[in-house]
Amino acid sequence: MAILATLFGLVGRFTGKLLTMSLGWASLLLFGRVPKDREVFLAAITFGSVIWVVLIVGVALPAAGVFLLSFAPIPDWVDEGLVRLAMLAAVVVLPPVLSLATLKLLRAQDRPKGIGPMLLHLARGYPLTAGLALLLVFLGIIGLVRKVRSLARRWTDTHIPIVVKPGGYEQLAADLDRAISDAGVDIAPRTAPAVMVVPGRLLATVAGTSVRGLLPDRLVRLVGKDVEVLIYPSDVAISGKQQTTARVQAALASRLTTAEAWLTMSADAQRIEDRLGHVARDRPDGAQRAEALASIDEQLATKELPYDEWEVLYRQRLQVERDLLLGNRPGEEMPADGGTTSGTRSSTAGVAGLFRRDPLQTAFAAGGLALMALNAALLLLERRSPVPRR
């Protein structure tokens, strides 16, 4: 019996680790890497939705509830009926709590104002929690399959955290496509698999602005012989052979200095990035360049910035100055195979074509807006309907 208990314990721990990794991959596939200050809330929403489904199963199926309770032994003096009542209460209360947590994923100016919009936001927690739980299980399986495939190919995975500027996703995808081609890596823009795109759109339909800001309207995939790049609004995920992946990562890090994305998360750091972008685009020389860079240096020396963000900004500042001194266009000159190239291939049309050829995007956007408008109208009618007198 002791041997069986040990064996079951090992299997349980392995299953728990596998589930945790699968949920992590699912969250990555759905949202990409989110900014650090949002990770805690996203993790709470993600795992909270799964816990909610487990609680529903425990309440609806007594046998399953007994099985679940066996994993968390309760004292003898606690009535199991009270535990089930507590589980039922959690089923009712948890979705609005998770919906409230999604407010932390929004900027202060984008959060609902007033009692009506707030009640609507809380009510949306039920479809959001149910949809997110099902999607996470579904995407967890997909993530596991992709991970196994990468291991079979002996590919490595790496990530570059970013924040896409408003309205800049399509241009960013085109810039990164061009940067990889300029680095001598042959790639082509492709649409991401439907299993990775459609779940996010369905979730955005019921989640509203709290999640829609983290999901791309169109997920672009750049595919080459030994590499694949997925561009999320808050992450660039690179998978491929180690040598090719390193080359692609270097090319993207160079181009992202002037692309439609921030590499930092805080508002102060992003403002400095914007100033560096202006210097890179205007390409001043002589005294004007020295004055602009000196002003940025002063901000780097006086602003209270996280050290990792300060390092990113300092690297970008050195890159911009170096490129300007060499007479290059900052962020757009990447040697290919040890030589130099001006990047003659333009991929803007190719990436833009992916967006134009997507009727499903328009249908989902229209359907999502219609569904949210209907939900809002129904809730307002319920609140304003007079109570019949007897």
Overall average residue pLDDT: 76
The number of distinct helices, counting runs of at least 4 residues, comes to 15
Helical proportion, percent range = 55-70%
**How many DSSP E strands?**
7
What is the CA-atom radius of gyration, in angstroms?
A: 25 Å
Beta-strand percent range: 5-15%
Spans of at least 5 consecutive residues with low confidence: 338-344
Largest sheet: 5 strands, antiparallel
Instruction: Note the run of SSEs as H and E.
Output: HHHHHHEEHEHHEEEHEHHHHH
Distance, first to last CA = 67 Å
Secondary-structure-derived class? alpha+beta
What's the shape?
Answer: globular
Polypeptide structure, described:
Helix content is 66%, strand content 8%. With 390 residues, it is of the alpha+beta class. The strands form two sheets. A five-stranded antiparallel β-sheet has the order 1-6-5-4-3. A two-stranded antiparallel sheet has the order 2-7. A hairpin with a 2-residue loop joins strand 5 and strand 6 (235-240). It is globular.
Provide key terms for this protein.
66% helix; single chain; alpha+beta; 390 residues; two-stranded antiparallel sheet; globular; 7 strands
Fold topology:
Layout: H1 2-31, H2 36-60, H3 62-69, H4 80-101, H5 115-123, H6 125-153, E1 156-161, E2 163-164, H7 169-182, E3 187-191, H8 194-207, H9 209-212, E4 220-224, E5 227-232, E6 235-240, H10 242-255, E7 261-262, H11 267-282, H12 287-302, H13 307-326, H14 348-356, H15 359-384
Helix pairs in contact: 1-6, 2-3, 2-4, 2-6, 4-6, 6-8, 7-10, 7-14, 8-15, 11-12, 11-13, 12-13
